[in-house]
Amino acid sequence: MQLLIEKIKNEGKVLSESVLKVDSFLNHQVDPELMFEIGKEFAARFKDEGITKILTIESSGIAPSVMAGLQMNVPVIFARKRKSLTLVNDLLTANVYSFTKQESNEISVSKKFLQEGDQVLIIDDFLANGQAALGLAQIVKEANASIAGMGIVIEKGFQDGGKQLREAGYKVESLAIVDSLADGKVTFRQDHKVEEIAR
Ligand code: G4P
Q1: Residues whose beta carbon lies within 6 Å of some atom of ligand 1
Q2: Which neighbouring-strand residues pair with 95?
Q3: How far is residue 46's CA from residue 22's CA, in Å, rounded to a whole number?
Q4: Chain-centre distance of CA 39, in angstroms?
Q5: Would you state the pLDDT for residue 195?
Q6: pTM, full prediction
Q7: Which ligand 1 atom lies nearest to the CA of residue 125?
Q8: How confident is the model at residue 110 (pLDDT cuts 50, 70, 90)?
Q9: Mode of pairing for the β-strands spanning 13-14 and 20-21
Q10: Mean pLDDT of 113-131
Q11: Of 125, 162, 95, 108, which is closest to residue 21 (Cα–Cα)?
Q12: Does 196 have pLDDT greater than 70?
């Protein structure tokens, strides 16, 4: 998605060979117009999948998911990472291990929001090792609902989450795929294609 790629080029900060900071529009401050376009793009890419619900994880998955839900006219559920005062009974849960943070979190969703027969689109802001997406997929399975696909705002193509999820058979649509953060530069997968065409 060209608009997103331009935004990353202009505002993204390469923190290390594996971490991209995008807190000016996605992870802290949020750019509503960009999120609106992201919502439209997800809606277009999954228009034939009969989506009935969107499932994401707090916190940064919420903004793009709500915009996609608005376009697709479906509810958006976000899995909680911390125990909630009101969310105590009848929970669907999964354990998510973060390689980045080296910690495990139990994520949870109330059973009442996911039913058998739901066609669920899983959305997340980043795809790194795929653990969050796999945890969300487990929750959908626990509800006996179906996973219609996974929409990712930024995939880090040099980590193996995307490969793992596609090999597992999921339709994964990433709006920007970063192939490398080496030498302080962001290289997009699309850049390779453009270069190949130019040659
Ligand atoms: P995984 O789910 O794909 O296995 O990812 P991982 O555990 O490595 O990532 C843990 C957290 O770090 C997630 O956010 C994820 O979105 C984020 N993350 C991973 N790589 C990057 C990166 O290069 N840049 C940025 N900005 N974030 C990255 P989280 O802790 O759940 O944060 P939030 O959703 O509450 O903002």
Answers
A1: 19-22, 27, 59-61, 98-101, 125-132, 156, 161
A2: 106
A3: 25
A4: 12
A5: 42
A6: 0.93
A7: 16
A8: very high
A9: antiparallel
A10: 97
A11: 125
A12: no
pLDDT at residue 54, as a whole number: 99
> Parallel, antiparallel, or unpaired for β 119-127 and 76-79?
unpaired
pLDDT of residue 191: 56
Crossing angle of helices 2-11 and 32-45, rounded to 10°: 140
- Please, what are the domains in the chain? 2-191 (3.40.50.2020)
Q: How confident is the model at residue 100 (pLDDT cuts 50, 70, 90)?
A: confident
What tokens appear for 8 in the block? 């990353």
Residue of 27, 126, 139, 181 with the most ligand 1 atoms within 8 Å of its CB, for mutation:
126
Measure the CA–CA gap between 109 and 52, rounded to whole angstroms.
16
Place of tokens 């970063």: 178
Instruction: Read off the pLDDT of residues 16-50 as tens digits, 9 standing for 90 and up.
Output: 999 999 999 999 999 999 999 999 999 999 999 99
Atom in ligand 1 nearest the alpha carbon of residue 135:
2
**What is the length of the chain?**
199
The whole-number pLDDT of residue 148 equals 98
- Residue owning the nearest CA to atom 24 of ligand 1: 20
> Strand ranges (DSSP E) for the chain?
13-14, 20-21, 53-57, 76-79, 91-98, 103-110, 119-127, 146-156, 172-180, 187-188
Asked if residues 76 and 69 have their Cβ atoms less than 8 Å apart, the reply is yes
- Please count the other Cβ atoms lying within 10 Å of the Cβ belonging to residue 164: 17
